[in-house]
């Protein structure tokens, strides 16, 4: 098909029901759309009450469309052709468009919306006039009101007339950020990127927290986690990646706790650190990729021993999913192939041969008494490194020492 589009009309999702918060939702969605299209300066993006308009100004429609299908908070969108607001021209363009898109055996309907009430015809008159012109030019023309093959939408706006005939399904969900901020514990595995995606879907703006234990973990493992975070930016814009220096804590746990408790105590420290980072950075929730029964650290017993260190809500979006279900999503969001790259992360390096599936809380507390818990958590939090990841990319030069802001 050789139809050239001038703009894309974006319809919002669930947010249209949000009453007083509506303006906030719309602004946030517009910001997210701008972010995922930031490298295309020719686009002009405006968001109004019930829809957003993206003027293409020559940009590649297919690329813009592909990116829009991933942005949460969009119900659907329609590429449109802009034509002058004069009846002879509108008629001519409708015929030209139908020559491209309408074939024998298909049914059609015209659906007009008139935002400019001063236009010479009202919407019913327009539907009739444009329907007639289709009948005049196509001997096989057949109207059908319910589920026609082609619905031609005609919008008479203040600046021009817009014609569209396709509704492309959006990602649904809520605009990222409208539910507030959360901190995603992002490992290099399959589950945590999927958990992050699902939190984004319901409007949580995520910051990705990754624990690295150099030299026991490699730069490759760190890069992999950043690449995974980059994959998540397509759903709602830039993500702050937070690298936590975890070596001191892991070495201390290894020295002071018995094998069977290494995993549980490591997780308890991760939870403490992520909770502190969350608090300092205005997060409301912790998100992780735990899935019930998947490994020893993810039995209900382990999960409660780990969770005991915080009162902050912990969202586990994949907790009830089977591995296959998680993998299906990982493939859809294009993180799977990255996740299965073989880089040891801090848990595999220190993983005991047989972790406790039912750790006792008293024992955890007992072993932790041998350690300077507060001091180590403090140092880990002070040592975090921030990277802004945007547009599916990350740039080493953008790293900043978080300690400078404290
Ligand atoms: P994943 O596939 O996401 O790595 P997993 O099945 O390997 O999950 P675990 O290794 O037991 O599970 O980790 C459980 C959760 O703890 C992870 O989903 C993640 O949220 C968090 N986690 C584990 N390791 C790290 C890490 N190095 N940095 C940040 N979070 C981590
Ligand atoms: Mg893992």
Tell me about this structure:
ATP binds at residues 185-186, 210-211, 267, 289, 298. Pfam families: ThiI, ThiI_fer, THUMP. InterPro entries: Rossmann-like_a/b/a_fold, ThiI_AANH, ThiI_fer, ThiI_N, THUMP_dom, THUMP_ThiI, tRNA_STrfase, tRNA_sulfurtransferase_ThiI. The protein has 406 residues and is an alpha/beta fold. The protein has 2 domains: 7-168, 2-Layer Sandwich (VC0802-like); 181-405, HUPs (Rossmann fold), CATH 3.40.50.620. Helices cover 37% and strands 21% of the residues. It has 14 helices and 16 strands. The strands form 2 sheets. Strands 1, 2, 3, 4, 5, 6, 7 and 8 form an 8-stranded mixed β-sheet that branches. Strands 9, 10, 11, 12, 13, 14, 15 and 16 form an 8-stranded mixed β-sheet that branches. Strand 6 and strand 7 (161-164) form a beta hairpin. The longest helix is centred in the C-terminal third of the chain and has 19 residues, at 262-280. The chain is elongated, with a radius of gyration of 27 Å. The structure holds adenosine-5'-triphosphate and magnesium ion. Adenosine-5'-triphosphate (ATP) is lined by residues 185-187, 189-192, 209-211, 288-290, 294-295, 297-298, 345-347.
């Amino acid at each position: 098909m050789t139809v050239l589009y001038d703009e894309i009309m974006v319809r919002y999702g669930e947010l249209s029901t949000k009453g007083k918060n509506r303006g906030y939702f719309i602004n946030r969605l517009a910001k997210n759309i701008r972010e995922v299209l930031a490298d295309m300066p020719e686009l002009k993006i405006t968001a109004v009450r019930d829809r957003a308009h993206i003027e293409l100004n020559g940009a590649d429609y297919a690329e813009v469309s592909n990116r829009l299908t991933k942005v949460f908070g969009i119900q659907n969108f329609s590429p449109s052709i802009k034509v002058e607001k004069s009846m002879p021209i509108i008629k001519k363009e409708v015929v030209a468009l139908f020559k491209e898109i309408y074939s024998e055996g298909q049914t059609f309907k015209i659906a007009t919306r008139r935002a400019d009430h001063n236009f010479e015809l009202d919407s019913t008159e327009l539907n009739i006039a444009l329907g007639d012109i289709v009948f005049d030019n196509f001997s096989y023309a057949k109207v059908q009101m319910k589920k026609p093959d082609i619905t031609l939408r005609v919008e008479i706006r203040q600046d021009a007339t817009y014609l569209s005939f396709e509704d492309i399904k959006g990602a649904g969900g809520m605009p990222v950020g409208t539910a507030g901020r959360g901190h995603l514990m992002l490992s290099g595995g399959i589950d945590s990127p999927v958990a992050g995606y699902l939190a984004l879907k319901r409007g949580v703006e995520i910051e990705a927290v990754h624990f690295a234990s150099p030299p026991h973990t490699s730069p490759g493992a760190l890069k992999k986690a950043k690449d995974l975070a980059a994959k998540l930016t397509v759903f709602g814009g830039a993500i702050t990646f937070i690298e936590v220096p975890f070596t001191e804590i892991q070495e201390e746990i290894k020295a002071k706790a018995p094998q069977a408790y290494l995993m549980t105590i490591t997780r308890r420290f991760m939870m403490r650190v992520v909770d502190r980072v969350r608090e300092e950075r205005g997060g409301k929730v912790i998100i992780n990729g735990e899935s019930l029964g998947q490994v020893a650290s993810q039995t209900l017993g382990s999960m409660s021993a780990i969770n005991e260190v915080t009162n902050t809500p912990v969202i586990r979006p994949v907790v009830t999913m089977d591995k296959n279900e998680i993998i299906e999503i990982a493939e859809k969001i294009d993180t799977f192939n990255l996740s299965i790259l073989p880089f040891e992360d801090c848990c595999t390096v220190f993983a005991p041969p047989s972790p406790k599936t039912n750790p006792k809380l008293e024992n955890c507390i007992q072993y932790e008494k041998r350690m300077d818990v507060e001091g180590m958590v403090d140092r880990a939090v002070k040592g975090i490194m921030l990277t802004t990841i945007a547009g599916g990319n990350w740039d080493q030069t953008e790293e900043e020492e978080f300690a400078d802001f404290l």
